[in-house]
Backbone:
């Protein structure tokens, strides 16, 4: 059997339709937060951990000319994949003379950094969009193999409306690429469970599994039990057929899977092409995991390995899983699990084991709860929801009516939450803030801000931006003591910036509308007018559906509260601030 046979068996037209519908669902707002690169601190998009558009170019350049300042956070498959999509556009830029003397410093040798980095960001987002649509196709494919086409449609629908999909399909984070390769590996695994363990199917499982781990190592947690399952099934089949387990035919699929997995990982992770960088990344990853488990990462809430800590972590993970698939979808998933156990669908239970092992490793190692970390589990939950959704669907029995009601509510809730997030991205507060600034800024005006620079609204090139105090990243706890306050006030007295922007970022504690590097005394003083600044404009997120609960994202990246303070003389009467929007109920924090 080859891969084309599997697609033909499940109807390739169905796969194509599912892919196009998913692409249409995720496409709106895929340009959200693309950088307006008018300065060196304005080259990053708004999304936290969205390393596009520069990191793929830097990483590919670093393979040929090592750079100690490289980003060691992830393996290299995602930058390599984006780099392949970049290549035609980059070649066109070289041929048309829009790149001369490439450099690692702004404007990077680009004749038009604003336009070029915007286009590169859209290209990188295209990779995310294709992977997100691919996740939905994998759900359709695997459910069709495990059950039938009817449940395949429901599984694809539940996978598509998982809340984090609407965000990560539109950013350059590696999480959606990780999910795609994991989903593709699970589709191959499902085909093995139903149709048998052949070298060709084993090779596809190995390729996709190795690619997932080469995107982010946490993917390995999804696959640690699969070799055990396949060995058990193979031994049982060999006994039933009286075959010798010492024969080459018995071990050939295992060798195919292992060889394909190692090759995909070695090539994709950078182990073969840049081993020095690979081992530096592994050291960095070990240090970060240790810091996570001990609570030394400032912007993560870590849970201690105690009875209370374990209980709180379990609650947090379940809450994040509920937010991924909404309460109605979670109820259907629980019902689906009961049905799978009741009807002894052993192949489905084995298909769900990767989600169990992933959760177990996440619980025992990272000791943190993040919405994006639950995406692989939410993908598996989509199959259970599909199993329950088809129970007496459309029938007039009480059970049929209940199932139909829960299914409609689950899908409608997911779609409405996605629409609300899409609206928030399209109407992000920083777009309104940029329009206000365009009307009030003069050439040469200076703007101060706190924390990360990737959150800044689009600004003209003739405006300077700076921080009044050092930002060392959100990993380290920020200085907010009296010496930090004196340093900030002295900086403002010396430089006299015309405006101060206060925008929360990934360093902000939940519910706090200013960055961690802005001491509370400074924020309160700006609000009350204690310093030589007055609140001139305020932009608060306004949701599309004020009555709808929209889960908070891992970071306050979409439509955060924006406050603009303008420098005035102390004797000047306080100005009435302009505002846009209103405090949002259920808006992203």
Residues:
């Amino acid at each position: 059997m080859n891969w084309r046979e599997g697609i033909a068996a499940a109807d390739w037209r169905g796969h194509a339709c599912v892919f196009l519908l998913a692409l249409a669902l995720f496409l709106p707002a895929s340009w959200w937060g693309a950088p307006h690169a008018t300065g060196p601190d304005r080259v990053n998009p708004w999304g936290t951990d969205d390393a596009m558009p520069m990191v793929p170019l830097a990483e590919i350049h670093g393979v040929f000319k090592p750079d100690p300042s490289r980003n060691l956070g992830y393996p290299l498959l995602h930058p390599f994949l984006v780099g392949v999509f970049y290549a035609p556009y980059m070649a066109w830029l070289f041929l048309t003379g829009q790149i001369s003397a490439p450099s690692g410093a702004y404007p990077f040798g680009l004749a038009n950094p604003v336009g070029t980095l915007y286009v590169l960001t859209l290209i990188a987002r295209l990779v995310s969009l294709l992977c997100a649509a691919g996740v939905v196709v994998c759900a359709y494919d695997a459910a069709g193999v495990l059950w039938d086409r009817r449940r395949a449609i429901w599984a694809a629908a539940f996978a598509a409306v998982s809340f984090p999909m609407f965000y990560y399909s539109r950013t350059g984070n590696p999480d959606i690429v990780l999910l795609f390769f994991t989903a593709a590996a699970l589709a191959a695994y499902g085909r093995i469970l139903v149709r048998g363990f052949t070298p060709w199917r084993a090779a596809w499982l190995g390729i996709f599994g190795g690619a997932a781990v080469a995107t982010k190592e946490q993917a390995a947690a999804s696959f640690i039990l699969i070799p055990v399952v396949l060995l058990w099934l193979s031994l049982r089949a060999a006994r039933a057929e009286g075959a010798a387990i010492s024969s080459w035919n018995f071990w050939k699929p295992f060798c195919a899977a292992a060889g394909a997995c190692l090759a995909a990982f070695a090539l994709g992770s950078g182990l073969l092409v840049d081993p020095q960088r690979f081992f530096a990344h592994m050291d960095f990853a070990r240090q970060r995991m240790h810091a996570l488990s001990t609570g030394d990462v400032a912007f993560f809430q870590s849970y201690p390995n105690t009875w209370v800590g374990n209980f709180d972590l379990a609650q947090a993970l379940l809450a994040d899983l509920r937010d991924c698939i909404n309460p109605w979808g979670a109820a259907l998933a629980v019902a689906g699990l009961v049905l799978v156990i009741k009807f002894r669908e052993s192949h489905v239970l084995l298909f769900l084991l990767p989600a169990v092992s992933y959760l177990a490793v996440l619980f025992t190692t990272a000791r943190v709860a993040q919405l994006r970390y639950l995406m692989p589990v939410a993908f598996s939950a989509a199959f259970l929801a599909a199993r329950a959704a088809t129970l007496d669907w459309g029938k007039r029995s009480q059970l049929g009516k209940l199932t139909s009601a829960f299914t409609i509510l689950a899908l409608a809730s997911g779609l409405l939450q996605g629409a609300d997030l899409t609206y928030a991205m399209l109407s992000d507060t920083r777009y309104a803030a940029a329009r206000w600034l365009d009307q009030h800024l003069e050439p040469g005006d200076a703007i101060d801000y706190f924390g990360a620079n990737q959150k800044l609204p689009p600004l003209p090139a003739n405006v300077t931006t700076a921080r009044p105090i050092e930002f060392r990243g959100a990993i380290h706890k920020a200085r907010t003591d009296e010496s930090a306050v004196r340093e900030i006030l002295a900086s403002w007295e010396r430089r006299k910036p015309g405006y101060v922007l206060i925008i929360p970022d990934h360093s902000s504690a939940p519910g706090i509308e200013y960055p961690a590097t802005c001491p509370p005394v400074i924020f309160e003083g700006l609000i009350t007018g204690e310093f030589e600044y007055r609140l001139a404009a305020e932009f608060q997120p306004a949701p599309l559906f004020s009555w709808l609960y929209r889960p908070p994202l891992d970071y306050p990246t979409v439509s955060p509260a924006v406050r603009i303070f303008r420098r005035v003389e102390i004797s000047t009467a306080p100005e009435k601030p302009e505002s846009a929007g209103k405090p949002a109920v259920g808006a992203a924090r």
In short: Residues 428-580 form one domain. Residues 1-10, 582-589 have pLDDT under 50 and may be disordered. The longest helix spans residues 307-342.
